[in-house]
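*** Fold description ***
***
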Amino acid sequence: MAFENNVKRIDQREWKVVRDKWLSYIPDFDTPGAPPAHQILEFVGLDAIFKKTQITPGEFKQDVPFLRQEVLREAIFFLHKATHVCGAANIHLDNGALSWSISSAYQSSFFALKGILGLLGLSFPRINTALMIDCFPEEEKLSNKQRKRGEKPKPEFKFVVFPKLSHTHMWQIFQRVLNSSTVEIWKEEMILCLSKLHIDQFAQQRNSLHYVNNFWLFPGDLFNRMFDPAFGIDVDLFKNLDSDKLQKRSDFSFILNYIMLKFGIDLLKDLSENATAVKAEYDLIQITLTEGIHKRFLASVS
């Protein structure tokens, strides 16, 4: 129950509001695509915040200078990783490794998941267990007197200690965010499709491939290359989005990957329109996508 209760502490958010708040916290990027110098879990002072949050019932609030910049920096790098691995999965398909391609497709989805959550202001570094960092929680409500005095809500973070988060937990968090957020730039049919998926479905193909000892998606390609130009592509993707049909597809992990990557890129594009440094990161992803190894992705989401 501890996890379920903590998930409920993830506040509602509106992307337009989060996007505009990010403009005050754009980090300095050395060069487009450069990895962060440090992981979020290494941020100075975060361990002390974790300890304070452990002894605070439910949640702990405090502002932390420069932490938002690092959350955004890491989120964008996750999208670079997701883009690369999506291309790697497409390379597997082009070279006849259909079964193993689903592992890469899923991994790209998981990187995109972390990038999406980060862009929406949420990070979950593993500090002993896990610590939820909400960069833009719901603001405190001010009285009319406070507003008349010109007071503004404090720009505090919300911190919540979670148990160790498995992949399933992360997808549960994602569905909570889908169901409690307003992201108008995302296609409604895509949101509805993923929000209706059974939570075990997201990683089922990948988990079967990795952990079910007698499972291989296409037994024939375990020994010989197998080519299927229709696998991992859907030029009518937005017409066919139905959660029941999607979870039965042999290329489910690819369709999930394409939706997740598109979600992340759409957020980055929207943020980049008023942030030059972010636009350079977005432009780099666009260059990567046109190099020729993302043909199935581009054909499916264009």
User: Anything to note?
Assistant: Residues 67-94 form the longest helix (28 residues).
